[in-house]
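Table S5 (text form). Sequence records supplied for joint modeling of the two-component complex.
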Amino acid sequence: MLAILKREIASYFTSPIGYVFIAVCILTSGLFFFIFTLSQGVTDLSPVFQFMFFVLMIFVPVLTMRLMSDEKRQKTDQLLLTSPVGLTGLVIGKFLSAFAVFLLGVLAMPVYGIVLSFFTKISWPSLWGNFTGIVLLGSVYISLGLLISALTENQMIAAVGSMFLNLVIFLFDALAAFIPFKLLSDVLKNISVYERYLGFTIGLFTLSSILFFASVIAVFIFLTVRVLERRRWA
Amino acid sequence: MIEVQNLTKSYGVNKAVDNISFKAEEGEILGFLGPNGAGKSTTMNILTGYISSTSGQVTIDGIDVLDDPIAAKRNIGYLPEHPPLYLDMTVDGFLKFVYNLKKCKLPRNSHLNEICNLVKISDVRGRAIRNLSKGYRQRVGLAQALVGNPGTLILDEPTVGLDPKQIIEIRSLIKKLGKNHTVILSSHILPEIQAVCDRIIVINKGKIVANEKAAALTAGFSEHLSLKIRVEGNESEVKKLLGGIPQIKRITPLREAETGVYEYEIEPKTGSDVRRDIFKKLSSRNYPLLMMKSSELTLEEIFLKLITGDIYRSADDSGDSDKTTKKSQKGGRK
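The corresponding structure-token record, covering 568 residues in total, follows.
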């Protein structure tokens, strides 16, 4: 697992992907920080985090698109799968590598709060709530992207597929409003990632939300392991 | 040691590997020979745990690959058909990654240095794999398989893409490795298998068609050994003269090789050596014998015979027309 983590992180930074992702994160969040906070003369950072939801929706798949698909295309999966490493360790190693790069990208965001705190009083719980929210959200996107990447050999398909599914996940919420069956709309509302993410942006740490995100991540990682396992039995 | 029992791999109704069993002892180099799509790579992928089998059992040093895959994989070094290399890494970075991936316990620098010297990639260790030639990539692939010094090496077409000098080097390397490793290697290059392997398994359409010591495989056919000679002098007279030797079954004049020099194919009766008789007969009449060579069946021909289903059928059973085609094939060899 550690070997894979190390290799993947190195690989992010031998190709431009890692730099581009971090640059995009810092640029867009900086822009939102200027537009929604500085120029409005408020101290609330929540709008910055809310808009990052959409940026990550599009850019996290760029991080995950080649994680598994490229292994298959370049046949390097033969090395990984014939090494004395468990599949779960392999997938978690991949997940953590994308997570590490993602974390470097969003780490700029609490800095905005810290900068603000020199000039005025800010709401720390709201800031950390926002940050926890975005870290969990990013992890969900990464685990989903990892799963899609394991399903195809083509990086582009992996990226577009993950973006599309991220969008679908986001739309659960809107969709729920149009569904006349109460049960179905309730289910959709309750598995809505966006709804729970908004909770974090107003500083709500609910255990159920944290558990929800953690289990979604676990399910996607589990499914990725299953996809790899199934390929061996095909 | 590798033991394979009743291994089958089905893809739907297609059987890529059909109920094969074999054993590779320690210190033995086992050659896998077969045409494209015969199931060589599939078998190797199953042995290494890359894909699963439909049924059957594989044990590596006594460990079942299904029961304890991680322990079994620790004893295997695998060089697949396409060397699994991360093109964005340097050779050194890649080998260190493999070292960590395999959780190798040997002292890292000296172990990797030793491997690099063995496969002669020490001079490219700092270069990105992307920029290496096919031959170097193949050698890095081999180096990767050697990391951790596994007891069993499985090499799928290890000399593909190498130049003749490198092929000889890699072959002698494999021979060297075979002394203290179990090596299974596949190839479609027949002389290679012949040169390197102790035992040969010929596989076709997922089935084993022969599993013999390399020497025994050729020996099974040596009874159809025929001779080719060139003699200066009148064709019909020479033929008549040699026809007097009782052990000769048939003399076929082939062509005029040089002016006045004719080539003949001599088929002796099974098991008899007629070379001395031919020399004596010809010299008694002062016909200069300019060439004599035995046209043994090459492994290639044996291979073709095996996979076309003509297994171990002695020449006597087959029809005359069949024999002539075989002869003309032989004529082209050696």
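Note: Residues 222-331 of chain B form a domain with the Alpha-Beta Plaits fold (CATH 3.30.70.260).
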